[in-house]
Every structure is written in structure tokens, then in C-alpha cells.
Amino acid sequence: MTTQLDYNPGRRNPYVDLIKDQKFALISALPLDSGPVLEKVEIAYKTWGVLNEKRDNAIVICHALSGSSDISDWWEPLLRPGKTFDYTRYFVFCGNLLGSPYGSASPLTTNPKTGEPYGPEFPETSIRDDVRAHKLVLDALGVQTVAAVIGGSMGGMAALEWPLCTPPGYVNTIIPIATSADHSAWGISWAETQKQCIYADANYQDGYYDISHPPTAGLAAARMIAMLTYRSCVSFDRRFGRKFNPKKNAPKATTNGAGGNPEKLVNGDKPANDEEPMNCVGQDPKCDAFRSAKRARVEATIGAAESVHRARSPMFSAQGYLNYQGEKFIKRFDANCYINLTNKMDSHDVTDGRLDHEREPTGEDFKEVLKAAPPRALVVSVNTDALFEPDQQVRLAEYLPDATLATLDSPDGHDGFLLAFEELDKIITERLRERCPWVYEGPPLLEVNRNGSTAVKDSVFGEVESEW
Ligand SMILES: CC(=O)SCCNC(=O)CCNC(=O)[C@H](O)C(C)(C)COP(=O)(O)OP(=O)(O)OC[C@H]1O[C@@H](n2cnc3c(N)ncnc32)[C@H](O)[C@@H]1OP(=O)(O)O
Ligand SMILES: N[C@@H](CCO)C(=O)O
Fold it and tell me: Where is this region: Disordered (predicted)?
């Protein structure tokens, strides 16, 4: 198995171009938990900062379901000198998940056996597969050991798997956020409702859709449902209340299935494909009966179209928001990738295949498996999280050796881990300083110039992101 850095993936799907300045590695072959060996595996990733002499200052950040390797897209306030992910001291790494549309091997990348995109034939991948793939990239980059692994939601699942899939001592500490030791029936079920939306879209075609005619209606509906699990009742009530929908961002209503286009049917004009009313066959088209029958039919068509228009136009601000989130998502995500990634989340269970019995794992079983994780993990919870309920992090903190639990006070539900920057910065930095003291010793490895760019100081390795 070889890992080539500075790989040029050539033909890329359009979503990859949304992520700026990504790097790519090529892994020759990756055996997957699901059975097949994935060949010529592209891994997209980003790094900030440089490795120190001992090559032990790497910090691995794991993104969530719809995120990418570009931390500055979702945790930017934490990725600054002096903040949590201080790239003047840490070598910050974020790898894109297998199955994601943003550059790593996925349903959108080319199957080397056929020369065509994998589509729905892209194999199931696990959180553990991601960890193994990203570890190979870190090895190629020269990382000796990892100071900390941090991630929220699906990224938190990865944070838990990192020490379990790598040699003892390789990972110094972990900070799993808004996540669980195994994905709950609740989480699996919410994802199922979203997948069913995609399956129900006529464009889906069992996943063999033309990329220029994707199942956007299904994917948008899936995202709208997901958004409700990511936020909270209290945040929706506070934000939208019973306010009416502002015109800004309101998606255009469609009239699919209404049998008419309201813009063309004005003041009783004839529809383009007009036919004679049945009761006027053989009559003079200029006769009154013919005309009134026509007018009645056209008015009925207009009425139907307008009523569909009214029914589908978001009336309330909350509806407008959800519709907009759906519209925004289909511009940046692919349906097969969504299914692959949600299946991956569903499969998450740290005890899977690690116990010597088949029965339902108990708390003791979770403890047995997670004792391989480094001590003093920090587990972070969001008090209003309705998807990964706080009780799951309470249990996780009990399972992990000598771990502590911190709870974010945020009205934003599960997405609180992407929005409560100030609190996150404080609690994570505090734990990193305690668990990775060597990273904070001595002067920083990079100098930040006035214009925000960085320059390397003496005796360090790695690459510097010029944008900084
Ligand atoms: C290419 C890429 O994007 S890569 C990946 C980026 N995404 C990730 O990393 C995944 C994780 N990130 C996320 O899930 C989200 O981006 C979050 C949680 C960080 C933030 O969510 P957001 O949708 O940006 O925030 P929020 O819920 O406040 O919604 C704001 C948007 O809704 C719009 N909006 C707000 N209220 C309404 C309303 N009543 N009607 C219509 N639109 C509304 C706003 O105008 C704003 O639009 P904009 O995104 O075009 O600026
Ligand atoms: N808003 C996040 C939530 C998933 O944890 C995302 O879209 O990835």
C-alpha cells in the first residue's frame, strides 16, 4: 500500500471546486470494513501550520456530515493564532470523509475499473475506514504522533475511533463533541426519513441518475428534515415565531402536477395545448356555449395553479427558512453521497466486532472497548441537542477512562457545536493546554505578519498555507 502526496485528481466533480486550496493524496488500495478493497483512493485534505521537530504537534479536526476539509468554512473563529486551533503552534489537519462530495473517493469519483463515476455502486464505508485512510495521509506527511483529535457529531464518532484504530500512544487526547459511542435508533430513524425523501424522487432512479438531472426535490426535503433535528424548538420559536415569510430568499413555487403555467394563462387566454370541450364537438367555435365552457375551464386551470402556488409558497418565516435551506443544500451536495454518508453514521458503534460475544453491548462492554482511548478525554454536550441527546454524552463520559463532561449552553440544538464559538474556544483550549503542554512551550513556530500571512521560524517541517 502506498500513499502519494501532491496528487492531481484531474477530472473533478463540481462540488470539489467549492472548496478552495485543497490538497489531494492517492492511496493505492484501501481494504474497507464492508469487504471490498477500494483502489486508487483519492483523499482530499487541508493543513494549516507546520510540524515541529519532534513531529508531535499535529491536531486532527474531523468534520461533520455535510462539512469539508476546509475548517475555515465552519469553525473559522477557532482557527486563528491564539485561538483553539492555533496554527502558529499546531500542525492542523482535516481530511475529507470517504463518500463526501468534496474531493475524497465517493459516488462522484471515478471507479478505476470502469472509468465512470461509481454512483450508487460506491461501497459502504465506515468511520474506521476514514480514520485508516487519513492516518495513511498523516504518515506520508511525516506526523509521528497526534496531539489531539477533535470533532463534532459524525466528526465526534471519528474522534472516538482514532485511538481505537491506531497504535497505542499514537493519539494523545480526544475531544468528542455532540456525539455518541453508538448511533442511536433515534438518529438512524431520522436519517431514514431523509433517505426515503430521496428514494421517492422520480429523478433518483435507484441512484443511477444523470448528474445533470439529480433528485433535487428529494435531497432538499431531506435537508429540511435534517435541519429540524439540528436546531431546536426554542431556537425556531425565538427566531421566527409566527412572523410571515420575507420576500428575500423565498424560493419560487412550482406548479408541477397542476396542469398549467399561471404566467401564460392570463385573463382567460387559451392555453397552448387547448382542446375543444367535449360538449361542443361539432359546434361553431365562436358560439357562446363554446366560449363560456372554454373560459370556465381556463379559469379553473388558473384557479388550480394559483391555489397550488398559494399552498406551496411559504407563508411563514419558518417555512421560508426551511425552504431556503433545502435550496441552498442542493447547490452544494449530492444525493448518493448523502445516502453513503448517512449509512456510514448509522453503522457507527465502537463495540462492533470488538467484543467476544454477540449479545447487545452493555455499559461495561463500552467501557471495555473504550479503555483503549487515552485518559482525560473531554466530552462536550449541547444542552438542547435533540439528535444526540445530552444523556448520550453523559454515558460516553462514563465509558471513557477518567473523562470529563462539559455542556454547552446553547439554544441552537445539535448545531450548537458549530455556532457556540466563544464557549467552545474556552473549554477546548483549556483542555488542550492541559493535555498538550509541549505545544504551548517556547515561541510559536510561525510568525504572523501584518497582512495575516505567515512565515516559518527555524527548525520546523511541513507546509505553510500561504493564505494565512
Ligand atoms: C461548500 C460548502 O459549503 S462546504 C461545507 C459548509 N458546511 C459545513 O461545513 C457543514 C456545517 N455547517 C452547517 O451546517 C451550517 O453552515 C451552520 C450550522 C454552520 C450554519 O448554518 P447556516 O444555514 O449558515 O445559518 P443559519 O441557520 O443562520 O441560516 C442562515 C441563512 O438562512 C437565511 N434565512 C434566515 N432566515 C430566513 C427566512 N426566514 N427565510 C429564508 N431564508 C432565511 C439567511 O439569509 C442565511 O442565508 P445565507 O446562508 O445565504 O447567508
Ligand atoms: N449542520 C451539520 C450537522 C450535522 O452534524 C452538518 O450539516 O454537517
Answer: 245-264
Task: Check pocket membership of 158 for ligand 2, CB cut-off 6 A.
Answer: no
Domain 3-183+352-456: top CATH class: alpha beta
63 is catalytic: no
> Which of 111, 140, 17, 181 has its CA nearest to residue 336?
111
Active site residue 414: yes
230 in contact with ligand 2, CB cutoff 6 A: yes
385 part of the active site? yes
- Residue bearing the CA closest to ligand 1, atom 17: 418
Name the residue ranges covered by the structural domains of the chain: 3-183+352-456, 184-244+320-346, 252-313
- The number of the ligand 2 atom at minimal distance from the alpha carbon of 178 is 5
Q: How far is ligand 1, taken at its centre, from the CA of residue 147, in Å?
A: 32
Phi, psi of 41, deg, nearest 5: -90, 115
Q: Give the ligand with the smallest distance to the CA of 190.
A: 2
**CATH class of segment(s) 184-244+320-346:** mainly alpha
The residue count of the chain comes to 468
- Fold identical between 3-183+352-456 and 184-244+320-346? no
Tens of pLDDT, residue by residue over 260-311, are 222 222 222 333 333 333 343 445 555 666 566 656 655 665 555 555 555 6
Helix (H) or strand (E) segment spanning residue 456? strand 454-456
Per residue in 135-184, pLDDT tens? 999 999 999 999 999 999 999 999 999 999 999 999 999 999 999 999 99
**Residue 414 grid cell:** 445539535
**Secondary structure of residue 297 in the 3-state scheme:** helix
